[in-house]
Design a protein that fits this description.
With 188 residues, the chain is mostly helical. 65% of the residues lie in helices and 4% in strands. The chain has a two-stranded antiparallel sheet with strand order 1-2. The radius of gyration is 17 Å and the shape is globular.
């Protein structure tokens, strides 16, 4: 999906929007039944989208806070932010060491009486989350992206820029995971 490596606030915002725009046709290519059904013992495509939405919302809330509150609550740093490629590799390493979604795992869907409406709600909620994150990011300066930190459940404290770079990759990663699981399921 990405043929660039985002780093500036504008390129990160562009990449978030681009990954989202490119993933929507993938998510909508599933029948509603397939979208809501688990892939073997793994999450359904819907669960992957819900997980992404659930992980974006706290980041957006953090970016909506005044910078001094973020620094007071989570600390500041003077170290340089890691680049996209390094964030991607560090996240992959955390996953290969047994990292899991934890509290960001989607809660099980129960009693879905109108599957098409549920699917529309999931996709709309995700689009709203991506849009809100982009809007919150606009308020941040390049300097503040590197000076403020936020906690990541698997990777510890990340600069805000690193958290955003992780989010770009994370959204792409889940599309790739579903593609791979479906490919494995059809071969197996």
């Amino acid at each position: 999906m990405l043929d660039e490596t985002p780093h500036s606030a504008e390129s990160i915002r562009h990449s978030l929007n681009r990954v989202h725009a490119e993933s929507v046709p993938y998510w909508t290519s599933f029948t509603t039944s397939a979208f809501l059904s688990p892939i073997g013992s793994a999450w359904s495509p819907a669960d992957n989208v819900r997980h992404l939405t659930k992980s974006i919302r706290p980041l957006t809330r953090g970016l909506e806070l005044p910078r001094f509150v973020v620094r007071l609550r989570f600390g500041g740093t003077s170290r340089p932010s890691r680049r996209y490629e390094q964030m991607r590799e560090d996240y992959r390493r955390a996953l290969s060491s047994g990292g899991q979604a934890g509290r960001f795992a989607p809660t099980p869907l129960t009693d879905v009486s109108d599957a098409d409406a549920e699917r529309a709600r999931i996709m709309s909620s995700h689009a709203d989350a991506v849009s809100a994150l982009g809007a919150a990011l606009v308020r941040w300066t390049e300097r503040d992206l590197d000076r403020c930190q936020l906690p990541h459940p698997l990777m510890g404290k990340l600069t805000v820029r690193e958290m955003l770079l992780f989010t770009v990759y994370h959204n792409q990663h889940h599309v790739d995971v579903v593609r791979q699981r479906l490919s494995d399921a059809t071969r197996g």
